[in-house]
Amino acid sequence: MTLPTTMTAARLTRHGGLDALEVAEVAVPAPGEGEVLVRVAAVALNNTDLWTREGAYGSAEDPGAQRGWRGRIDFPRIQGADVAGRVCAVGAGVAEDLLGRRVVVDPAIYDDDGPDANPVGLMGSERDGGYAEYVTAPAAQVHDVSDSPLTDDQLASLPTAYGTALGMIERGRLRAGETVLVSGASGGVGLAAVQLAHARGARVVAITSAGKIPAVRAAGADAVVDRGDDLRAQLRSVTSEGVDVGLDVVAGGLVPEALPLLREGGRWVVAGALGGFDVALDVRRLYLHNAQLIGSSMHTPSHFALLMQLAREGEIRPVLAATFPLGRAREAQQELARRAHVGKIVLHP
After folding, report:
1. Is the dihedral of CA 72, 277, 296, 348 positive or negative?
2. Are residues 31 and 179 in the same domain?
3. Which of 33, 94, 101, 267 has the fewest beta carbons under 10 Å from its own?
4. pLDDT at residue 161 above 80?
5. 86 and 223 housed in the same domain
């Protein structure tokens, strides 16, 4: 197969507004040793795309500093963490039987090679991503899903949102029969958490806005409450026996409000801060009840392997909100920022 020498890509030229994202013709990357080249069939958007563009992650020393997901970005940077496609070339040391395989890329950059490694970087931030016709990736992080019944759009929806949600579920040790509370349940990670927790056999209580309640209930929530209408009273009415696990992407004022709902030995897992970074809480609610407050950033390699097995079996079917051609990447990010949708937004190169 003869590959083109140039491709269309949407890349960041700096931190900033939508005008910082440009569509350009760039060179097709060559896979290095241990890498493969993937022809991108679909790439899903995530909030991290917006925050990386805006440089909104800050640093421990300076919360207001403009940074990518884990540090300074080398511009220009092609965005996009969530890629589904086919392997079209392999680098040195990679078996050629991967050629032609339908794959999903694990977008994390890990701190070691073990199954429980921590993500310390992300495709689309710390290395070029999939807002392009082609992208390179380590062969060890390319998962063969040739037999999956899911569409390319559904497969591309899995890595960051569903990987993050599954990481939360695994770190929170959620078991069948337990009650789980999911905040931000209509967003990418929140809706994924609802689906995954339901598939695990948990009783799912979800928080969302009034207009999105039917969609969240359809995704598998057993009870859904309106975040804007006396939230504490609603939660107490549907969790009278308490909550075993909280899966929280909102944080802010929700943490002190909902933490008292935890049963003895409960686990509250935080993977986002849509409601605010600063949290004030009564620590007695933790130590007097043997509760745990757990930070969860994306997934480990073992979590991702479990997610890919679910994809091969068709156990989880992501909800799609909209698709855009790559040339309309700005419009797609604008739609994501509006937060009027339920499900994933996907680009087609």
Report:
1. negative
2. no
3. 33
4. yes
5. no
Query: CA geometry: angle at 166 spanning 81 and 231, to 5°?
Result: 105
Indicate if 287 and 308 belong to the same structural domain.
Answer: no
Tokens coding 76: 């220009």
Crossing angle for the helix pair 163-171 and 188-200, nearest 10 degrees? Answer: 50
34 close to 137: Cβ distance less than 8 angstroms:
no
Number of independent structural domains in the chain:
2
Residue 236 has pLDDT above 90, yes or no: no
Range of the domain at 217: 173-295
Answer yes or no: pTM beyond 0.90: yes
Q: Is residue 106 included in any domain, yes or no?
A: yes
- CB burial string 72-82: b at 16+ within 10 A, e below: ebeeebbbbbb
Task: Please check the confidence at residue 335 and state whether its pLDDT lies above 90.
Answer: yes
- Cα separation, 22 vs 4, in Å, equals 21
Which of 321, 309, 255 minimizes the C-alpha distance to 282? 255
Domain assignment of residue 166, yes or no? no
- Reported as a single tens digit per residue, the pLDDT across 183-214 is 999 989 999 999 999 999 999 999 999 899 99
Q: How far apart are CA 163 and CA 233, in angstroms?
A: 32
